[in-house]
Specification:
Length: 193
């Protein structure tokens, strides 16, 4: 079967994580992964980003499938339930808005820049080597540290889910997938009226 260009988007996800490790300002590129799925679901009314273009899902498929890092067990039923998916989305959005608040506090000079990546919203990893002598506004760097924390945390959660269950099990409760699904449902509901 001939592969298309979008079958290699896993390289983009992996490159993003590596670049952020060496220079935190590359974290800003993650906004593409945030806005493109939303735009596609708003414009097209479907989840083609999740199904075809998501580099992270492809990366988990590759690691868990081809490289055999997955146990290939079914994901527990409770992880598929609406209450869990929507609850995880609310939790994830709360963490995202908290990150925006910290960025604002640094912008308004009410708080100093923290050169830390927070993994799983709990573990503070010093990441100061990835910032170095770069001179950008402190709020821009703070946003990068926070956004990279969100992206790294979701990747780690997806990796653990991939290892324990099927390769793309993260996709079942991915906050981006849940948001795009809600947009598609709302758009489909509008068309019926």
């Amino acid at each position: 079967m001939k592969k298309s260009w979008y079958d290699y988007l896993w390289i983009v996800s992996l490159t993003y994580l590596l670049l952020g490790f060496f220079n935190i300002l590359f974290a800003w590129l993650g906004l593409f992964c945030f806005f493109i799925p939303l735009i596609i679901s708003i414009v097209k009314g479907n989840k083609s980003y999740c199904n075809r273009y998501c580099g992270r899902g492809q990366l988990f498929g590759l690691l868990g499938g081809r490289f055999g890092l997955s146990r290939r067990k079914d994901i527990p039923g409770w992880m598929k339930k609406k209450w869990f998916r929507y609850g995880f989305l609310v939790f994830f959005l709360t963490m995202f808005f908290q990150m925006l608040l910290v960025t604002y506090l640094v912008f308004s000079k009410a708080q100093d820049l923290r050169q830390v990546v927070t993994l799983l919203w709990t573990f503070k990893l010093p990441w100061d080597w990835a910032y170095g002598q770069i001179t950008v506004a402190p709020w821009a760097a703070q946003f990068a540290f926070g956004f990279y924390s969100v992206m790294l945390t979701s990747t780690v959660l997806g990796f653990f889910t991939m290892v324990l269950y099927k390769p793309r099990s993260w996709c079942v409760y991915c906050p981006m997938g849940t948001m795009t699904q809600l947009i598609c449902k709302a758009k489909a509901g509008k068309g019926e009226n």
